[in-house]
Amino acid sequence: MSAFLPRTIKGLALMLGKVPVKPAPEEMSADARELLAFKKTPSERKRRKEAIAAEREHEEMSWKWRSRRWASIIVLNGIFILSYWLDLQLVEGALTASRVLGFHFADLNSSLQLMLAHKHVVLNLVIGVATVFLIYILFGGRSFCAWVCPYHLLSEIAEMLHLKLAEKRLVKDHELDRRLRVVMFVIFAALAFGTGYTLFEAISPVGILSRALTYGTLVALIWIALLLAIEIVWSRRFWCRYICPIGLTYGFAGVAAPVQIVYNADACFHEGKCRQVCLVPHVLDMTKMSYGTEVREPIGPDCTRCALCLDACPTGALTFEVAGVTRPYQRPARPRLDAPAERVGAETPPA
Fold this sequence. Notes:
Elements lengths: L3 H12 L14 H10 L2 H16 L6 H22 L5 E4 L2 E4 L2 E4 L1 H11 L4 H17 L3 H5 L2 H18 L12 H16 L3 H5 L1 H11 L5 H13 L4 H6 L2 H8 L5 E6 L8 H5 L18 E3 L9 H5 L5 E5 L29
Antiparallel strand pairs: 1-2, 2-3, 4-5, 4-6
């Protein structure tokens, strides 16, 4: 519990655009320092290099969690479509605001935009926000991005194409400053308040796709095509990484969610496959050698719970866990570092 507050502050700072930095030795727990010293011993270095080489000979990316997410996105959005076209009236509206079996649901950012634009609060909107807020307090705010948002699926496919073209050196990823997302959040909020018009809702691919799939309004899909083209040829995951403020609101909502992806440094080879596939790789900086402050750490609030890192990790160092439910972790037995040369850095690990 003592590590929760500093870890939360650090996670929120990363979500708001702070650049990850390697912690000082005194910021690491005693267990983390001991593990780091063990991993830097010659015998353990050799073992890890041999294991990485053997793993790369049979390199293959799992689709276990990706398939589950894609199915979730298709099913959840399909329910809206079927309910409308079959006139079932079980699910009404779109992802930005809906009524499910009589219960109101409202996207947090969309609701904020509406309240700022109209400068008053509607009771049904408050009920919808509260319902959604409670859901993402439990499951983790940004899980919406990976498990519900229809644009995420299209963007993921666009990313695959981008990476194929990048391998052939036909395109190059232009990384932008992650703080741009915070700036855009403020700009969209200020415009809503100042103009009385929710500009973000007019250009948000989440709402556009949800309404287009449900009600068949296809003209706005030209904007979606343009965004995907930008992500394929210019900047990987441009909208989700640098522009969309929805992730920020859900990140704050799920900052202490019990459903988490947890990193276990004991099992990590530090080869970086998880960061290569992650939508928000800064949340996985602790997987770099010497960057973790604990032997086991939950991934921060900017994590989308997409689990691509679980699909990519060859050692199982990243796992889904539910706080208070998942079986407590038992550290494996390791050889004692008795030789003086082997113990160098046990208290202050080398850089």
